[in-house]
Amino acid sequence: MSRHRTGTRSNSRKRGLIQRVGIVFPVAVFAAVAVAGVAVGAAVFGQGSGAFNIAQAVEAAPGSHTIALLEVERAQLTAMTTAARTLTVVTRPKLASPTQVAAATSGAATGGAGGTGGGGVIYVTSTPPNPNTAQSIAYNLMASFGFDPATFFGCLLDLWNRESGWVYDAENASGAYGIPQALPGSKMASAGPDWQTNPATQIAWGLGYIKQLYGNPCAAWAFEEANGYY
Q1: Residues paired with residue 23 on neighbouring β-strands, in sequence order
Q2: N or C: which end of the chain has fewer CB within 10 A?
Protein backbone atom coordinates (compact mmCIF):
# COMPACT_ATOMS: atom_id res chain seq x y z
CA MET A 1 0.00 0.00 0.00
CA SER A 2 2.75 2.51 0.85
CA ARG A 3 4.60 1.83 -2.44
CA HIS A 4 1.48 2.26 -4.44
CA ARG A 5 0.71 5.60 -2.84
CA THR A 6 4.29 6.74 -3.32
CA GLY A 7 4.15 5.91 -7.02
CA THR A 8 0.90 7.77 -7.42
CA ARG A 9 2.28 10.91 -5.81
CA SER A 10 5.38 10.73 -8.05
CA ASN A 11 3.27 10.51 -11.20
CA SER A 12 1.12 13.41 -10.05
CA ARG A 13 4.17 15.58 -9.51
CA LYS A 14 5.41 14.79 -13.03
CA ARG A 15 2.07 15.64 -14.62
CA GLY A 16 1.85 18.88 -12.64
CA LEU A 17 5.36 19.86 -13.67
CA ILE A 18 4.62 19.17 -17.33
CA GLN A 19 1.44 21.22 -17.18
CA ARG A 20 3.23 24.12 -15.50
CA VAL A 21 6.13 24.02 -17.95
CA GLY A 22 3.70 23.77 -20.87
CA ILE A 23 2.04 27.02 -19.79
CA VAL A 24 5.03 28.92 -18.49
CA PHE A 25 7.39 28.24 -21.41
CA PRO A 26 5.33 30.02 -24.15
CA VAL A 27 4.73 32.92 -21.77
CA ALA A 28 8.43 33.18 -21.11
CA VAL A 29 9.21 33.10 -24.82
CA PHE A 30 6.65 35.85 -25.53
CA ALA A 31 8.09 37.99 -22.74
CA ALA A 32 11.59 37.56 -24.11
CA VAL A 33 10.50 38.60 -27.59
CA ALA A 34 8.72 41.67 -26.15
CA VAL A 35 11.80 42.67 -24.20
CA ALA A 36 13.94 42.30 -27.32
CA GLY A 37 11.48 44.41 -29.29
CA VAL A 38 11.56 47.16 -26.70
CA ALA A 39 15.33 47.07 -26.71
CA VAL A 40 15.47 47.39 -30.50
CA GLY A 41 12.93 50.27 -30.42
CA ALA A 42 14.89 52.06 -27.73
CA ALA A 43 18.12 51.67 -29.70
CA VAL A 44 16.53 53.07 -32.84
CA PHE A 45 14.54 55.92 -31.31
CA GLY A 46 17.43 56.84 -29.07
CA GLN A 47 19.27 58.11 -32.13
CA GLY A 48 16.74 60.87 -32.85
CA SER A 49 13.11 61.48 -33.55
CA GLY A 50 10.76 61.86 -36.50
CA ALA A 51 9.70 59.84 -39.52
CA PHE A 52 13.23 58.71 -40.30
CA ASN A 53 13.55 56.87 -36.96
CA ILE A 54 10.14 55.30 -37.49
CA ALA A 55 11.44 54.04 -40.81
CA GLN A 56 14.47 52.60 -39.03
CA ALA A 57 12.24 50.84 -36.56
CA VAL A 58 10.18 49.34 -39.36
CA GLU A 59 13.37 48.27 -41.11
CA ALA A 60 14.18 46.12 -38.09
CA ALA A 61 11.34 43.83 -39.16
CA PRO A 62 12.82 41.40 -41.76
CA GLY A 63 11.17 41.40 -45.20
CA SER A 64 9.17 44.61 -44.56
CA HIS A 65 8.13 46.58 -47.67
CA THR A 66 7.11 49.65 -45.67
CA ILE A 67 10.65 50.94 -45.31
CA ALA A 68 11.12 50.88 -49.08
CA LEU A 69 8.04 53.07 -49.58
CA LEU A 70 9.17 55.47 -46.86
CA GLU A 71 12.60 55.77 -48.44
CA VAL A 72 11.05 56.61 -51.84
CA GLU A 73 8.84 59.31 -50.30
CA ARG A 74 11.77 60.75 -48.33
CA ALA A 75 13.89 60.90 -51.49
CA GLN A 76 11.10 62.70 -53.35
CA LEU A 77 10.65 65.26 -50.58
CA THR A 78 14.40 65.86 -50.46
CA ALA A 79 14.53 66.44 -54.22
CA MET A 80 11.54 68.82 -54.13
CA THR A 81 13.04 70.81 -51.27
CA THR A 82 16.39 71.09 -53.05
CA ALA A 83 14.71 72.24 -56.27
CA ALA A 84 12.63 74.86 -54.45
CA ARG A 85 15.74 76.34 -52.87
CA THR A 86 17.44 76.76 -56.26
CA LEU A 87 14.64 78.75 -57.98
CA THR A 88 15.87 82.06 -59.35
CA VAL A 89 14.41 84.85 -61.43
CA VAL A 90 16.08 84.52 -64.82
CA THR A 91 14.63 87.60 -66.48
CA ARG A 92 12.47 90.65 -65.90
CA PRO A 93 9.47 91.77 -67.93
CA LYS A 94 10.58 93.90 -70.87
CA LEU A 95 9.51 97.52 -70.98
CA ALA A 96 10.32 100.01 -73.69
CA SER A 97 12.75 102.70 -72.62
CA PRO A 98 12.29 106.30 -73.83
CA THR A 99 15.55 106.03 -75.79
CA GLN A 100 14.40 102.92 -77.64
CA VAL A 101 11.04 104.47 -78.40
CA ALA A 102 12.62 107.66 -79.69
CA ALA A 103 14.92 105.69 -82.00
CA ALA A 104 12.08 103.55 -83.31
CA THR A 105 9.61 106.38 -83.86
CA SER A 106 11.91 109.06 -85.17
CA GLY A 107 10.19 110.69 -88.13
CA ALA A 108 7.31 108.20 -87.93
CA ALA A 109 4.53 110.42 -86.65
CA THR A 110 3.01 110.81 -90.10
CA GLY A 111 2.44 108.53 -93.04
CA GLY A 112 -0.05 107.38 -95.61
CA ALA A 113 -2.29 104.37 -95.55
CA GLY A 114 -0.67 101.27 -96.95
CA GLY A 115 2.70 102.95 -97.38
CA THR A 116 5.97 103.38 -95.56
CA GLY A 117 6.37 106.30 -93.20
CA GLY A 118 9.55 107.82 -91.83
CA GLY A 119 11.82 105.64 -89.70
CA GLY A 120 10.88 102.47 -91.61
CA VAL A 121 7.38 102.27 -90.10
CA ILE A 122 4.94 100.25 -92.21
CA TYR A 123 1.34 101.43 -92.31
CA VAL A 124 -0.95 98.41 -92.50
CA THR A 125 -4.25 98.75 -94.33
CA SER A 126 -7.36 97.06 -92.98
CA THR A 127 -11.07 97.07 -93.57
CA PRO A 128 -13.42 98.25 -90.78
CA PRO A 129 -14.06 95.44 -88.26
CA ASN A 130 -17.33 93.71 -87.57
CA PRO A 131 -19.66 95.74 -85.33
CA ASN A 132 -20.21 94.84 -81.67
CA THR A 133 -16.66 93.58 -81.26
CA ALA A 134 -13.69 94.88 -79.30
CA GLN A 135 -12.05 95.77 -82.61
CA SER A 136 -15.01 97.94 -83.60
CA ILE A 137 -14.78 99.77 -80.26
CA ALA A 138 -11.14 100.55 -80.98
CA TYR A 139 -11.90 101.59 -84.56
CA ASN A 140 -14.51 104.06 -83.35
CA LEU A 141 -12.32 105.44 -80.54
CA MET A 142 -9.18 106.05 -82.59
CA ALA A 143 -10.27 109.40 -84.02
CA SER A 144 -10.72 110.83 -80.52
CA PHE A 145 -7.03 110.15 -79.91
CA GLY A 146 -5.99 111.77 -83.18
CA PHE A 147 -5.52 108.52 -85.13
CA ASP A 148 -7.17 108.18 -88.52
CA PRO A 149 -8.58 104.63 -88.38
CA ALA A 150 -8.22 104.25 -92.14
CA THR A 151 -4.47 104.75 -91.65
CA PHE A 152 -3.69 103.26 -88.28
CA PHE A 153 -6.27 100.59 -87.48
CA GLY A 154 -4.43 97.85 -89.37
CA CYS A 155 -1.34 98.39 -87.20
CA LEU A 156 -3.40 98.40 -84.01
CA LEU A 157 -5.17 95.23 -85.13
CA ASP A 158 -1.87 93.42 -85.67
CA LEU A 159 -0.41 94.75 -82.42
CA TRP A 160 -3.17 93.59 -80.13
CA ASN A 161 -3.72 90.38 -82.12
CA ARG A 162 -0.21 89.43 -81.06
CA GLU A 163 -0.34 90.81 -77.54
CA SER A 164 -3.71 89.49 -76.34
CA GLY A 165 -5.86 88.31 -79.24
CA TRP A 166 -8.22 91.14 -78.21
CA VAL A 167 -9.28 89.14 -75.14
CA TYR A 168 -10.21 91.47 -72.30
CA ASP A 169 -9.09 89.08 -69.54
CA ALA A 170 -5.90 87.88 -71.21
CA GLU A 171 -3.17 87.62 -68.58
CA ASN A 172 0.55 87.10 -68.99
CA ALA A 173 2.79 85.36 -66.48
CA SER A 174 4.65 88.64 -66.00
CA GLY A 175 1.44 90.28 -64.76
CA ALA A 176 0.42 92.06 -67.98
CA TYR A 177 -3.36 92.13 -68.37
CA GLY A 178 -6.14 92.89 -70.79
CA ILE A 179 -6.36 93.75 -74.47
CA PRO A 180 -3.42 96.21 -74.42
CA GLN A 181 -1.50 94.01 -71.93
CA ALA A 182 -0.92 96.77 -69.39
CA LEU A 183 1.85 95.93 -66.92
CA PRO A 184 0.60 95.81 -64.26
CA GLY A 185 -3.06 95.64 -65.26
CA SER A 186 -4.04 98.05 -62.49
CA LYS A 187 -2.54 100.89 -64.52
CA MET A 188 -5.75 100.85 -66.55
CA ALA A 189 -7.71 102.01 -63.50
CA SER A 190 -6.82 105.54 -64.62
CA ALA A 191 -9.24 105.00 -67.54
CA GLY A 192 -12.07 103.58 -65.41
CA PRO A 193 -12.85 101.42 -62.37
CA ASP A 194 -14.14 98.62 -64.61
CA TRP A 195 -10.75 98.11 -66.25
CA GLN A 196 -10.72 94.39 -65.44
CA THR A 197 -13.88 93.56 -67.41
CA ASN A 198 -14.68 96.39 -69.85
CA PRO A 199 -12.94 96.22 -73.24
CA ALA A 200 -13.78 99.90 -73.95
CA THR A 201 -11.96 101.03 -70.81
CA GLN A 202 -8.93 98.91 -71.66
CA ILE A 203 -8.85 100.13 -75.26
CA ALA A 204 -9.10 103.77 -74.21
CA TRP A 205 -6.18 103.31 -71.86
CA GLY A 206 -4.18 101.43 -74.50
CA LEU A 207 -4.68 104.12 -77.15
CA GLY A 208 -3.58 106.78 -74.67
CA TYR A 209 -0.49 104.74 -73.81
CA ILE A 210 0.40 104.29 -77.47
CA LYS A 211 -0.07 107.99 -78.24
CA GLN A 212 2.06 109.09 -75.29
CA LEU A 213 4.90 106.62 -75.79
CA TYR A 214 5.01 105.95 -79.54
CA GLY A 215 2.99 108.67 -81.24
CA ASN A 216 0.75 106.29 -83.21
CA PRO A 217 -0.19 102.59 -83.46
CA CYS A 218 2.01 101.92 -86.48
CA ALA A 219 5.10 103.17 -84.64
CA ALA A 220 4.13 100.93 -81.72
CA TRP A 221 3.68 97.98 -84.09
CA ALA A 222 7.08 98.62 -85.66
CA PHE A 223 8.65 98.58 -82.21
CA GLU A 224 6.78 95.36 -81.38
CA GLU A 225 8.05 93.65 -84.51
CA ALA A 226 11.62 94.73 -83.83
CA ASN A 227 11.70 93.90 -80.13
CA GLY A 228 8.90 91.44 -79.37
CA TYR A 229 7.12 93.81 -76.99
CA TYR A 230 5.93 97.40 -76.89
Answers
A1: none
A2: N
Q: Within 10 A of 217 (CB to CB), how many other CB atoms are there?
A: 32
Q: How many residues are there in the chain?
A: 230
| Side-chain half-sphere CA neighbours of 55 within 13 A | 12
Rg for the chain (alpha carbons), in Å?
42
Q: Which residues contact 101 (CB under 8 A, 6 or more apart)?
A: 213, 214, 223
Could you report the per-residue pLDDT of 133-179, keeping only the tens digit for each?
A: 999 999 999 999 999 999 999 999 999 999 999 999 999 999 999 99
Rounded to whole angstroms, the Cα distance separating 101 from 27 reads 91
